[in-house]
Amino acid sequence: MGIKRRHSLTYKQTLVTVMTVFVIGLAISFYQIAVDLKQERLRVDQMVNQVLHVLKSPAAQAAFNLDNSLAQQVVNGLFDYPPVLQVEIRDDVGGLLAMAHRSRVDSSMRWLADILVGNTKVYQLPLKWSERVTPVGVVTVSVDPYLVTLGFFDRARLVLLFSIVQILVLALLLSIIFYVTLTKPLMKTAASFDAINPADNTGARITMPPGHEGDEIGLLVDKGNRVFEEYRQHIWQQEEAEAELNRLRNLLSNVVDSMPSALICVDVDFRVIQWNRQAEQVTGIAATQAAGQNLTSVFPRLAQEMGHIRGAIHKGLSSHDQRLKFTEEDAVRLYDVTIYPLTTNGIDGAVIRVDDVTELVRIEEMMIQSEKMLSVGGLAAGMAHEINNPLAGILQNIQVMQNRIQGDLPGNIKAAEACGTTIESVAQYLAERKVYDMIERIREYGKRAAKIVDNMLSFSRKSSRQMEPHDMIGLMEQSLELATNDYSLEGGLDFRQIEIIRDYDKDLPPVCCEASQIQQVLFNLLKNGAQAMAEHRGSAGGSRFILRIRGDSRSVRLEIEDNGVGVPEDQVKRIFEPFFTTKPIGVGTGLGLSVSYFIIKENYGGDLFVEPVPSGGACFILQLPCG
Ligand SMILES: Nc1ncnc2c1ncn2[C@@H]1O[C@H](COP(=O)(O)OP(=O)(O)O)[C@@H](O)[C@H]1O
Ligand SMILES: [Mg+2]
Description:
Elements: H1 9-64, H2 68-79, E1 84-91, E2 96-101, H3 110-117, E3 121-127, E4 137-143, H4 145-148, H5 150-195, H6 216-258, E5 262-267, E6 272-275, H7 277-283, H8 287-290, H9 295-298, H10 306-315, E7 319-328, E8 331-343, E9 347-356, H11 358-404, H12 410-418, H13 423-432, H14 435-457, E10 468-470, H15 472-485, E11 499-504, E12 511-513, H16 515-537, E13 544-551, E14 555-561, H17 592-604, E15 607-612, E16 618-625
Parallel strand pairs: 11-13
Antiparallel strand pairs: 1-2, 1-4, 3-4, 5-6, 5-9, 7-8, 8-9, 10-12, 13-14, 14-16, 15-16
Helix pairs in contact: 1-2, 1-5, 11-14, 15-16, 16-17
Bound molecules: adenosine-5'-diphosphate and magnesium ion.
Magnesium ion is lined by residues 524, 527-528, 588, 592.
């Protein structure tokens, strides 16, 4: 820490002292000189008067007698004295008896002498002679005061010179003294101040310059140490407070970040002041980027909520909007948006909570759907029960009817003859009127209805007795075999032309189930897939199934993926409903998936759903718990 010499205390103190001493010294010197000057003037007067007094008698005598030579002698006598410039003696009527004159000596100090002691000093002495009342003449002497006071000027110069030397010596001494006693210890103390870092906790203190314990420097050091101590204490308290503040801030931001909702705070100008992790995820914008930005520029989807945000800020109103639709990358997602005023001293902004409820809504809808299916399933089963008995009666009677119109049974031949006809003509008539065909068709329709009723009955058929552990790969392969050999597959498709890719996990756990039920489900799914692929291509060419079986200790997941027409988005929920079919009458009953769904859900507590295949087609997923 350097101080310019001009600003140093030594310099300032010395300068002030020396200036003071200089002024005082000069004043004293001038006073001395002035006193000296006054005395010098008096001395000149005295001296001239004394000389005039001595020469008074001879001069008076010369004037009285008008003796020119005596007068000249007196004049010469006076003129011997060098300061005398001019001497003249005149008689009482002004006649000049004698005179002498010389020029003034020139000198560099002459101007000063002229100011201080005057230019020329003239003395006049009237000359008296014995009893005469009036003077008999007059002596006039002009003196050059400069020459008289030459000694004075020498003395004055000496006095001034001495004063200056004295002051210079004093300045030097004072500089040294001030430096040693003041500047040096102060500089040391300052260096000691510099060496201390108030922020470190070593307890370092300013060193006391030796011998200054009781004086002002000591006081300064003591005060400095005390200030440092208080400052350290203060810093320590501040650090504690900051640590506590940071801890609370962390806690708060962790709490806010762990919330599953996007939480956003804006100030009264709609600028973002809080942006939690969920908000980062929903928008893909980091909190650091969002801070200070206008809400609509970082979360444009909230533009429709600006009215409510304004209401919260200006009127303190809260709002809760449910199931708002935001389109994101072609997918529609649903959000609940809650807005409430942010109040501290007054209203400082608004808090916006955005919850993604897409999944929740989906689950809700699924639950409603499965409830609906359960009730429809129950209804169908009830109806099937009621229809089952009359249908059995119809089928049985048809069977009997067919028996009774056959030509070769003795009972029939006898009954015809009894009626006066032959069984042949009856047969001929029935054939002619196509009654055989009609009866056969009634039987076929009846059997078909019986098959539907049987399917419908399985809605209420609970788990059966033969629950045993089964290997899922085995069941899948058996179902495949069944489908391959099922020539009743409608639509003329041939299972053997379908490429089958198998992707089975090894070491799959066995699943406790009734083999025929799972086979029925898998058969339904395979049959649907084959039909969807045939529909897609008009034939089974290029069709392929990917069959996957994955499993862990808790469940086994079977996937049947086809490359068929796929399930349109709006039908995904409906395909599991009983009697929902897109196939022509006679081809589809709309019961395959619903029966499968009920078997898996009701009998096994598993799950059956469909997922779209991006390249086209549908993937039916069957999940079965292992237990
Ligand atoms: N793999 C599939 N690909 C495309 N659509 C399918 C598939 N499986 C089922 N579906 C659709 O689901 C409907 C219902 O199927 P399902 O219950 O088996 O009845 P059905 O096969 O008698 O029509 C079908 O009509 C069809 O529209
Ligand atoms: Mg089907």
